[in-house]
Amino acid sequence: MPIVLYGCETWWLTLREEHRLRVFENRVMRRIFGPERDEITGEWRKLHKEEFNDLYSSPSNVWVIKSRRIIWTRHVVCMGERRGIYRILVGKPGGKRPLGRPRHRWEDNIKMDLLEGGCVGMDWIELAQHRERQRALANAEMNL
User: Fold this and answer.
1) Of 76, 90, 125, 129, which sees the most CB atoms within 10 A?
2) Is position 96 within any domain?
3) Whole-structure pTM over 0.90, yes or no?
C-alpha cells in the first residue's frame, strides 16, 4: 500500500481513477486471500468485496488518499506564501485561459473532500489553521 499511495497528497482524482484504485485493491485482496472452498458443494469460488471487509477491516485506498490530502493542507498553509508549492496550489495564474472546460485542480478536490466530510461552506485554508477540526475531519474521512 505505501508504494501505491506514494505522493497521493498531491493527486487530483477523477471518478475513473477512483474506480481503478478500487479495482486494483480488490485484485490485490483476492490475490492475498485466494479462493474459498464452499462447504456445501465443495467447489472453489472467488471472495466478494463484502467478504474481504469481514476478513480485513482496512479503509479503502480512496479514503486514505482523501484523508492524507486533508492532512497535507495544513502543511501547505504553514509553508507560507514565499514557498513555491504554496504559490502553485493557491495562486491564480495570469494570462489567457485556453478554450474548453477548466482543468480539475487540487484545490477543487479538497473542496469536494470537505463537502463529503460535512464541512459545507468552509474554506480549506481556514480549516487547515484549526488543527483539531482538521484532524477530526481526516479521521471521519478514514472511517467512511
Assistant:
1) 76
2) no
3) no
